[in-house]
Specification:
Length: 355
Amino acid sequence: MQSMQAFVMKKIGEVGFMEKPRPTEPGPNGAIVKTTRALVCTSDTHTCKGAIGERHDLTLGHEAVGVVDRLGSEVTHVKEGDRVAVNAITPCYHCDNCLRGFSSQCTSMLGGWKFANVKDGVFAEYFHVNEARANLVRIPDSIPDEQAVYTSDMMSTGFAGAENAAIPMGGTVAIFAQGPVGLMATCGARMLGAGSIIAVEKVPRRQELAKHFGADVVVDFSEQDAVARIQELTNGEGVDSSIEALGAAATFQMCVQVTRPGGTISNVGYHGEGDTVPIPREAWGVGMSDQTIRTALCPGGKVRMRRLLRLLEQGRLDPTLMTTHTFPFKDLETAFDMMADKRDGIIKPLITFGD
């Protein structure tokens, strides 16, 4: 049996490379993909800190593109040798939750998230895709891998934050944190017709990117009270919609505080610490504010992916502006460590394979 290198979570708090058997049997509905490009996500670092429990020698990573190495007999919409993308979320599309319209929660809570959760992820020379008929999509020739890889999570998740925020055409929205997900939520809010986009961020480069992707105002919470400033900017009314893109109790509470009665709070942040996420009682109208709280796990599937790739093909955005660092696969541990503590102004590190 042939072997390959994989970057794994050995146990909580410990990562590293190990040799694993190379996957060769896709199964009738699956596919084996040879990895060409991947991105490191802050979610991977949360996982390694124990946010979803213990894992042993589990290959990390859920954002990647590559070339089809082997296909199952039932997969006919792509062929071996095609450049392909796969979403971070790969539902089965057969279970009750999928059939109820909640495919990201496939089988059970968070069950659509399989890579680096319940099966080996994409930080390896080859990876397996389940239900490839539904989850794998060919990358158009005009889109480079460095762009296409952003459709797997950052674009899909950030846009879901904006979609779920129910922003009225011409309405107001506040987006807390301008990391990769928050930046794509900002971009999504602009595309959906928000009239005023307020981004909350303190890091200068992220502030610049927020303005590039559509923010009208950037509030630096390290210099001023973000809640008070947003209330000032909205003449004391609050925003129609708010988006939590960090995964912190403090920013979620701010979302509740700045959202007007009847507005929508959209959470796409990964809350990786603590047992509860408190809601500020009075700002919540002591439970009767008519505010809607929406949560989302990155939507998956090839239809979603084709739409995201279409945006790239038509030049609606260039997500590679978020790529601050590039590393060869052999240096992935360095990229991982930098992403964990956001060293050297890192926003998103690109990992290259076979170059």
